[in-house]
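G., before I forget:
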Amino acid sequence: MSFGRANQQWSTFSKAWYLLNADRQPPGKLADVAAKYLMGMHKPIYHPTSRVGDHVVIINAKEIAYSGNKWEEKTFHSHTGRKKGRLMMRAFEVHELDPTWIVKRYVYRRLPKGSYGGMYKRNLFQKLHVFADENIPEEIKENISFVIPQPRRVFKGINDYTQEEIDNFPKLWIPSPDFLKR
Amino acid sequence: MPPRWMKHYYLALERKEEIEGPDPPLPRSSKPNWNITAELTAFKNRLDIEVPNELLVSALTEPLFNEPSTEDTGYSKLLKDGSKFVEEFVSHYVKEAFPFLTSEGRSSICDFLLLDSNIAYLALNLGYNDLLQLTGLRSSEKVLAESLVASIEAINLSEGPVAAAKFILNFLVPQLVGKDIIDDIWKPSNPMALLTESFKISGKPAPQARLIQQCGVNTVTPIYYVGLFSGKDLIAKSGAESIVLAETDAAKLALKHIYHVHTLSKSPPMGNLLNQDFLNKLFYPLIDNKTALSS
Amino acid sequence: FTGKTSAHAFLKSVLQNGVGKHVKQLKRITLNFSEASPSSRHVRKFVENDLVEFARKHPSVVVYAMPEMEQRPSVCVEYLNGREEVASLEKLEPDEILQKLDTYSNRSGVEILKIVKDIHTDHPSIQGQWHLFTNNTHNI
């Protein structure tokens, strides 16, 4: 089954819109996946000289998860170029200021570098849309038609279970009423 | 480089060419290395035809149409009979080669094959333009096309209709190679209506387009993926920048399968694909002594 | 970006040649040579010994021998598509001239250029060319 030639070309080279949920995902792995889709490396027609990248919409960027003590230890640096112009912020401080900044930074650093990057890198970055929570503009929501699977499996937290599920869960022993207080 | 004092002469020549346009190209026969007998012999050997020289020359000589008093060398008669023969044979071939196509589609293929520009291109690349004797009153494209048709009639007169038909099969019909019947030649304006009509004849429910998927609808490059359904059966799918375009394209795709003109379906018989049964069927109306064939 | 491109073309034949009847694309050969000059002695020898046989072997080609005083030996070939080529025959032995003419007679007449790849298939895949919605399981 093949289309007419013009429509086949249109269907092959149109840009898709992907949704990626950043809820409880490490930003590094998130950026790896997003950069791959931005460059179009997931397509069988990929070639470095042809621009076949897709749009990626990342939601829930404020819910990203660092492992270990990285929120405290990880630092982001900047320098104005003048004396005493150094700026250093810890990850949780940056995240409080702008919850989308860390994801954007990680994706930008994973896009092609050097003389080959250049304007291409900036063009690709324009196709990334990051939002702090699930509220995204209606215009962008209508464009989306595909979902990228999350890079890390999300386990259910204790707060995600309803009271009914907790009550119905089989118990090996019934603790005494003062067990938790102790 | 020309001398300095000749500058104004050359500039004047350039100016003259600007105003009057370039000179018409000289006929090849005006050059010293030209022998008309040898050229005609080589021409006949090249195309594998056996026609008397006088007949061939009269097919390649354009009479002065504006002056009816001048003697017509049989060109107009050859042209009249030839165009009738070519038209009949081409339509017969198309009918045999595309048995699933409607009459509208068949006539569009015939029109394409008999286009003046198409036949003139063929004649130009078979070496007709060197031997052609032109009056220069009409466009050379039209005369080229006419002379090829007249020469086919000349073959018909001297060698018989089968040889003339073989000439058409050898040179005119292969023009269809690489052409898509529906996309390039027929170009139906409303394929959905054609599809509905053909479904009505075969007794299936009318085709209906349903949107399967869409992407990037608020951008300048949206894509809509549409499926054509007849009842619960999926007939064809297509994607395009608007729903109407996708629906039209899917209908064309379905038509290609119904008419057996899809790139994946069997190609029309030409060249090596011509088998003896098909040729017999093709030449049957041309042969006078029809009993000879059956024996 | 640099603007450095050499002349190139796709490999193609003239007029679907060979689908129906195969037509030899060379239509005319003109041998220009001198009657007396020593530079044309090989061409004169070729015309005396081999030219008739060559012309008999290629009945669809018209061969002209054009002797003229004080002329350098050259060959002009004309093809059905309207192109013509001129080549020098200086310092070529008769067998080399024959080889050269054979090469010209076997050509299609299309200008010799760098051939760029025309990647295509006569048998497109059954499932069709890839597009956005092929095997894409990650739908909303």
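The interface with chain B takes residues 1-5, 7, 10-11, 14-17, 55, 139-140, 142-146 of chain A (CB under 8 Å). Chain A has one domain: 16-153.

More on Monday.
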